[in-house]
């Protein structure tokens, strides 16, 4: 199978499809009860996109990946990869489909006894590619990941980022059309993470490889993925463009996950401090990707003669669009503040009145 790119303007082709997939591990739950790792997952990943899957530890992310590469079989539902229904294939045919799927891991999983070139050559050897062709492909791959000059080194002499680049070269050796990256940057520092993610973007853009990134790090998704799915306790709680899920999460679970990572809402401890120093009503407004948004906000405050001071928040960029939230201390007659909130809401603005007695934040101090 070879790498397929999508013709410009053509409708997106589905590369991976989950249909009502469930995965239960019998006897692995509390007191020998079945452990439901995934429940009723329906999901489509398009050919040529970078798709992120995020969720807390134990949410079921790795199980989902193992269902894509056929290392696990679902308890219910169907998993399609390209034209193949994995659930209907024999183990032998599943292995064949797996040949078109590359995989990179958090701990790199390189052979310590082989050189960098030997690691990249290994899958080609297994696939029966002969020596001259193998050497040519290894050189091309090492050049692509910027490690041609390290071909004869052993992995222990490389930095973490270089090891992962070898991992990527090895995963691409058999020219897969799909690359699965399971926490591939979780062991790396932020700068090296950036380099590896830039390489993954190049793999996607230049080679047309579909990439599925599994991570608990929102920054990874934010900088790399086109679309994202949020898993929470085995359930798919939200799927959408990275911008929509981050800027306007529709579910409480996705909002919690995005919120803790972006830290764009004041924590209960911060709110308590703000209350000691500000006497008005504290209200958080989500920034909208709209020309003149802040001017309209200011005008609404002014029209109702409510004073608004920004006490928390910030605006950053996501997929070249503004994202963030601003917490205001609103002072004025109670009815005027109510009128401001009603006006904003009727204008479609997301307004959160910060609860005066918030629940303690489980993430606080973590
Ligand atoms: N082979 C297995 N046998 C029994 N239980 C399993 C198995 N694989 C996963 N689980 C359980 O399924 C649930 C989901 O695990 P999974 O590893 O998919 O989550 P995750 O989101 O990838 O978490 P992490 O980020 O910690 O790896 C967990 O409760 C886990 O203990």
Automatic annotation (TrEMBL):
Entry keyword annotation includes Hydrolase: no
Domain ABC transporter: from-to ranges: 16-258
Q: Which SMART domains match?
A: AAA, NIL
Which organism does this record belong to? Actinacidiphila acididurans
Q: Which SUPFAM superfamilies match?
A: ACT-like (SSF55021), P-loop containing nucleoside triphosphate hydrolases (SSF52540)
Protein name in the entry:
Methionine ABC transporter ATP-binding protein
Q: Any idea which UniProt keywords this protein has? A: Amino-acid transport, ATP-binding, Cell membrane, Membrane, Nucleotide-binding, Translocase, Transport
Give the residue range of the signal peptide: none
- The UniProt record lists the keyword Membrane: yes
What GO molecular-function term can you cite, just one?
A: ATP binding
Source superkingdom:
Bacteria
InterPro entries the UniProt entry points to: AAA+_ATPase, ABC_transporter-like_ATP-bd, ABC_transporter-like_CS, ACT-like_dom_sf, MetN_ABC, MetN_ABC_transporter-like, NIL_domain, P-loop_NTPase
């Amino acid at each position: 199978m070879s790498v397929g790119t999508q013709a410009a303007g053509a409708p997106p082709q589905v590369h991976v499809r989950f249909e009502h997939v469930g995965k239960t591990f019998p006897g692995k739950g509390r007191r020998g009860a079945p452990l439901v790792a995934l429940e009723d997952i329906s999901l489509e990943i398009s050919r040529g996109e970078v798709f992120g899957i995020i969720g807390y530890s134990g949410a079921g992310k790795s199980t989902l990946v193992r269902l894509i590469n056929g290392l696990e079989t679902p308890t219910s539902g169907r998993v399609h990869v390209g034209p193949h229904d994995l659930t209907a294939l024999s183990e032998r045919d599943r292995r064949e489909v797996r040949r078109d799927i590359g995989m990179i891991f958090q701990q790199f999983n390189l052979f310590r006894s082989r050189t960098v070139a030997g690691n990249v050559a290994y899958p080609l050897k297994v696939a029966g590619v002969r020596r001259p062709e193998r050497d040519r492909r290894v050189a091309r791959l090492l050049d692509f990941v910027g490690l041609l000059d390290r071909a004869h080194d052993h992995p222990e002499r490389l930095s973490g980022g270089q090891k992962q680049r070898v991992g990527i070269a090895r995963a691409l050796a058999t020219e897969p059309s799909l690359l699965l990256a399971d926490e591939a940057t979780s062991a790396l520092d932020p700068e090296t993470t950036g380099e590896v993610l830039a390489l993954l973007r190049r793999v996607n853009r230049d080679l047309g490889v579909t990439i599925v990134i599994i991570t608990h790090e929102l920054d990874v998704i934010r900088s790399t993925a086109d679309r994202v799915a949020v898993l929470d306790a085995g359930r798919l709680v939200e799927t959408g463009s990275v911008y929509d899920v981050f800027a306007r999460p529709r579910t409480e679970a996705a909002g919690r996950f995005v919120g803790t990572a972006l830290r764009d809402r004041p924590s209960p401890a911060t709110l308590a401090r703000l209350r000691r120093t500000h006497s008005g009503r504290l209200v958080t407004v989500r920034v909208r990707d709209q020309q003149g948004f802040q001017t309209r906000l200011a005008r609404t405050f002014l029209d109702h003669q409510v004073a608004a001071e920004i006490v928390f928040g910030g605006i950053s960029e996501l997929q070249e669009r503004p994202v963030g939230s601003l917490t205001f201390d609103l002072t004025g007659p109670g009815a005027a503040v109510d009128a401001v909130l009603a006006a904003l809401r009727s204008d479609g603005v997301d307004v959160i009145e910060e609860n005066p007695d918030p629940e303690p934040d489980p993430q606080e101090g973590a």
